[in-house]
Amino acid sequence: MQAWLSFALVLTALRIEIVTAELQYDPWQEDTQLDSIKTSDNVIFLAPYPRKIQGGELYGFANAERACRESGQAFHADGGFRALLTTHNRPLSKILPKHMYNLSVVNIEGDLLAETWGDFIDGKITDHPLIAMDGTKDHIGPRWSWKYFWLGDGYGRTCEHWLSSYFMDVANVFAFDYQSGQVVNEISSCSASLHLLCYSVCDEYGSFL
């Protein structure tokens, strides 16, 4: 009987320890720590597609993604590039998950474009220029020399889901104002020939350098 009582007391103590551990367990905190470990060495590369295109020449979001992927593979042996475009189900805030908002944003030579992805989303950039897939550097100059990039807004300004080049259809676009350190937002007709910006989350920092 005494042995059985001792066993019961030990079992009860173990249950108390297990319950206490469960109460202290925070899965959100663990996920955050793991994400921090997994993304701490990552950076986000930005590189323009090497030629201008009208809004409808993107032929939809999926084909824009393919254009970035194939261009990245052809010029840099990296098929991980994606299109920095919004759609109805993919607003700018959801292009990357929140735990990646602390990653640095760089061009394909490794020069810092924005301290973090969060800063870039907020329109804060450095004076280092973008470099296109083919190695062409962006100009740092007056407004007339800026490159404008297709963006959309996830609602009505996406060139009819990136299928229309009709001059009455419009899309939100943006440019890099290096002199003021800001991203400038504008609206453009879908018939305009503008640029497509591609991005890649990469943990091999020197892969393009």
TrEMBL record:
Domain Collagenase NC10/endostatin intervals: 54-199
Presence of keyword Signal: yes
InterPro entries: C-type_lectin-like/link_sf, Collagenase_NC10/endostatin, CTDL_fold
Superkingdom: Eukaryota
Pfam families the record matches: Endostatin
Signal peptide limits: 1-21
Keywords on record: Signal
Protein name: Collagenase NC10/endostatin domain-containing protein
